[in-house]
């Protein structure tokens, strides 16, 4: 896959997507969002890809936000469409993928950058990462799901504080409040994400996809997460992976999932 603003590196069982606009601190312009949508879509449909890691190029930034130069002159309708389209193409899209997505936060993750990291299924940060939703300092609010996902991840009070102050928190603070699962030195960031990917790929991709659906259900309006869990649990019993996983356990061998 060849793109202008992102790099895709496909390994044996997982893939790394790198947002590659280092001179703009990897800011998300509309072209980059469209390329990311295409890349995530292709990788999600490739059964050999069991995990997707998303990161930013360079050592300074994961993503420093939506590209401010692109929307500075937008009117109400254009602003609404920017958020709607972005959420549909990238942020909700990633959250609902059946392939697990890990965000490797390697520096500034601000505005749309933090929103991208939060749309991933979980996050790992390097010690130099700085995270925040500074939109109100620009006279706007987070529009790529930030008001919802930040409160889900860190709690309402902390999300209110971070959004109102437009401040940045360190990787250590992000780890303490549950925004990221791990904090490591920069050179350890991708190795740790790859190690976590290695643990995930041993398991049933079909079951993982069902678990993502059930977990996400709790964060979806008008959907009963417990009902979705019952449905997905039941459906698991009809899969080849279930037969293989339970048979392998009873035969005291490692499962060989397709
Ligand atoms: N949109 C567009 N361009 C951006 C950008 C963004 N969100 N973030 C950084 N850039 C660009 C800068 O304009 C600059 O481009 P230039 O060299 O052509 O002038 C380049 O990236 C480097 O950024 P710079 O501000 O010079 O780096 P810095 O180290 O002084 O500051 C930040 C780093 C992250 C603190 C600062 O770039 C910043 O505040 N960015 C905006 C963050 C933000 O508000 N994001 C939310 C957007 S909704």
Describe this protein's structure.
The chain is an alpha/beta fold and 258 residues long. It is 48% helix and 16% strand. A hairpin with a 3-residue loop joins β1 and β2 (14-19). The two termini are 24 Å apart. Residues 24-25, 27, 64-69, 108, 110-112, 134-135, 138 line the site of coenzyme A. Coenzyme A is lined by residues 24-25, 27, 64-69, 108, 110-112, 134-135, 138.
Give a short overview.
By secondary structure, this protein is of the alpha/beta class.
Write the H/E string, N to C.
EEHEEHHEEHEEHHEHEHHHH
Query: Which sheet architecture does the biggest sheet show?
Result: 6 strands, mixed
Give unreliable regions as ranges.
none
Task: Please report the total strand number as a whole number.
Answer: 10
Beta strand %: 15-25%
Structural class: alpha/beta
Shape: globular
* Mean pLDDT figure: 97
- Lateral arrangement of strands in the main beta sheet: 1-2-3-5-7-10
Helix content: 40-55%
- Bound ligands: coenzyme A
End-to-end distance: 24 Å
As a whole number of angstroms, the C-alpha radius of gyration is 19 Å
- The helix tally amounts to 11
Which labels suit this protein?
48% helix, alpha/beta, globular, 10 strands, 11 helices, six-stranded mixed β-sheet
